Amino acid sequence: MKLWSSKNSDDKSNGMFICCKIGRQTLRSYWTSPPTKLIADYQYLKGRYGFINTKQRAQRFIELYNVMFWEITDFQMKKMKHAIGLDHSNKPYRNRYFTNKNDKDWNYLVEIGAAVKGKNVQEDGSVSFRLTKQGVEFALGKRIRSKAYEDL
Description:
By secondary structure, this protein is an alpha+beta fold. The mean pLDDT is 85. The protein folds into 2 domains: 2-68, no CATH class; 74-150, Arc Repressor Mutant, subunit A (Orthogonal Bundle), CATH 1.10.10. The chain has 6 helices and 6 strands.
């Protein structure tokens, strides 16, 4: 499944088309006031996009939709890539980043759902952060299998 948005140049509102592609089929749905975080159920999405016909597809749609609105700086992306080892390798091989528990960049990534914060704060105030599966996929620019994520 692929998901993207496009604006209608003639449209004066804040609306946009949310385009969803599964296999060879692409459907567009116009959202007049698209939320930056989608909280919808399976029935709602099935009615809007006929080929979202399983709860698994609906869940993936919601994940992809919510990631579309992430605003991540180049510096935050650099930290994300470092966390999964892309500054030393072409393939991700780890998933951890130790820094101060109040690090603004990492706490923002936690807030949007791209990372999780460890519970054990060290004496010096440092804590570990990990990217979520969506965070790893965003940093890589592609989907990864759940097994590949768990192996990090």
